Amino acid sequence: MTTEDTQESATLFSLVGGASTVDRLVEAFYRNMDETPAARDIRAMHAAELGPTKAILKSYLSEWLGGPKDYSSKRGHPRLRMRHARFSIGPAGRDAWLLCMNAALEECIEDPAARASIGKQLAGLADWMRNDPDNAHDKAHRG
């Protein structure tokens, strides 16, 4: 097996440093959410005590990046929109979430290509999570 083959089969999870990097990423993300005035409204959607929420996000991101399948084995399909339906998520919430996450990515993911790839995928996911009437994804399905 060549080095190129090994790199192609490696997951983003392993490329970024595995569980320790995901842990740092989630901690930085929620620290950013606490410290960023633009994130006040999305921070208010969370409980004061973030321990359980951090654990869930760490598990989800680990699996999403190609790591252990602990999230699915414990919680089933992510059903992210369903799980977040009780919150009003519009462009401002999406942008605040991305501001905090992109800063965390910058802080925690050393590899520029991996950071860009993860950031691009998370931007698409964050936009899809919007549940406002102007969400282009929903408009396309309403016809």
TrEMBL record:
<keyword id="KW-0813">Transport</keyword>
<keyword id="KW-0479">Metal-binding</keyword>
<dbReference type="InterPro" id="IPR009050">
    <property type="entry name" value="Globin-like_sf"/>
</dbReference>
<dbReference type="InterPro" id="IPR044203">
    <property type="entry name" value="GlbO/GLB3-like"/>
</dbReference>
<keyword id="KW-0349">Heme</keyword>
<dbReference type="GO" id="GO:0020037">
    <property type="term" value="F:heme binding"/>
</dbReference>
<dbReference type="GO" id="GO:0019825">
    <property type="term" value="F:oxygen binding"/>
</dbReference>
<comment type="similarity">
    <text>Belongs to the truncated hemoglobin family. Group II subfamily.</text>
</comment>
<keyword id="KW-0408">Iron</keyword>
<dbReference type="InterPro" id="IPR012292">
    <property type="entry name" value="Globin/Proto"/>
</dbReference>
<dbReference type="GO" id="GO:0005344">
    <property type="term" value="F:oxygen carrier activity"/>
</dbReference>
<dbReference type="InterPro" id="IPR001486">
    <property type="entry name" value="Hemoglobin_trunc"/>
</dbReference>
<protein>
    <submittedName>
        <fullName>Group II truncated hemoglobin</fullName>
    </submittedName>
</protein>
<dbReference type="Pfam" id="PF01152">
    <property type="entry name" value="Bac_globin"/>
</dbReference>
<dbReference type="GO" id="GO:0046872">
    <property type="term" value="F:metal ion binding"/>
</dbReference>
